[in-house]
Amino acid sequence: MNSGILQAFQRELTCPICMNYFIDPVTIDCGHSFCRPCFYLNWQDFPILTQCFECIKTTQHRNLKTNIRLKKMASLARKASLWLFLSSEEQMCGTHRETKKMFCDVDKSLLCLLCSGSQEHRDHRHCPIEWAAEEHRENLLKKMQSLWEKACENHRNLNMETTRTRYWKDYVNVRLEAIRAEYQKMPTFHHEEEKHNLEIKAKMAHRREILRGMYEELKKMCHKPDVELLQGFGDILHRSESVLLHMPQPLNLELSAGPITGLRDRLNQFRVDITLHHDEANSHIFQYGDLRTICIGCDHQNAPHTTATPTSFLAWGAQTFTSGKYYWEVYVGDSWNWAFGVCNKYWKENNQNDNIYGEEGLFSLACVKNDIQFSLFTTSPLALQYVPRPTSHVGLFLDCEAGTVSFVDVNQSSLIYTIPNCSFSPPLRPIFCCIHL
């Protein structure tokens, strides 16, 4: 073949980023091709869109498919380079003066056919050198894919952790003001919890660099000459597997609830007994996971329950309130998926026989279970509460004149949250929603 044509052919099988023969080539929207590892490593912070490194056109990086034909041609080019290397005089077998064509997987050595059948190597695993090299290269690519998926997962977790931390800091500031109004100071251990969260983020960022570094090492190994690749494969594979261990997990952000001395004694001055009417409803709110029977201001024996399909119950208070201050408690036990609070008159009329998705006019505390996690939140406006889930009694303090609804963890004697500036439209009515199994 003409040398000029041969060089042009080799250029077409060369990645424009690493300038080596393609490994696991991908062809993007504009038609240009790159090694998958090169394309991955040249993204900036894992964007959804990126630019082609040749024509600068924007392309999506999701679901990139291997260009099988290009991969086979690059493999053939590597084989040609291998045979050119093996045909040199210094690579001839010193004993039999034959070309070394076999690879001994035990000794990691190159052998001629006669040596591979000798007594020394007879019981070892042998295969043609080009087969061994491609097999090891494919194993490296599989390991690189696992590393890259972990790196992407870690990056998503890091972004999520950054966002959650920002919201969490805002929440801490709001909670500082709420507790300062009740107790004049925030316990110092909240700062330790924030410090621990920053440590988790730092570990994730460090792990991202380790994963990327390991990925780059595997990429370099893929481009090594076949002999070096075969001899160094075992060590780098072992190190890459160790890197996948001990991945840092996102932190479950939660503030410890500090007790407020005398809180319940003060609230009990406004204690009222609430009568709740249980109505089975077709509400779809909070239908996540398993629930135990919830007791709403009654004995466990009288609590409704069923072992059939989970059923939603809306319990409305018989009393209504237009002015004044009132406090009552609800027993939730160790249950999940419940909500209670007060609602405006028009809200009750609009949601009597329907679901209660709409939060406008509903001032409530709710607990939702999803898999093994739970979320505690308040409505009007919707806000997550980063405090431990109440596991016994929860109190509600309604101040009609101040326009506030406060929720209290009775066992901890701690304030969960106060909904400020409530847009009350009296009469206000207590409400409780739960799901029973």
Automatic annotation (TrEMBL):
Task: Give residue ranges for domain RING-type.
Answer: 15-55
Q: What is its EC number?
A: 2.3.2.27
Annotated protein name in UniProt = RING-type E3 ubiquitin transferase
Instruction: Tell me yes or no: is Transferase among this UniProt entry's keywords.
Output: yes
Q: Per the record, what are the reactions this protein catalyses?
A: S-ubiquitinyl-[E2 ubiquitin-conjugating enzyme]-L-cysteine + [acceptor protein]-L-lysine = [E2 ubiquitin-conjugating enzyme]-L-cysteine + N(6)-ubiquitinyl-[acceptor protein]-L-lysine
Species of origin: Rhinopithecus bieti (Black snub-nosed monkey)
The record's keywords, sorted A to Z, are: Coiled coil, Cytoplasm, Metal-binding, Nucleus, Transferase, Zinc, Zinc-finger
- SMART domains cross-referenced by the UniProt entry: BBOX (SM00336), RING (SM00184), SPRY (SM00449)
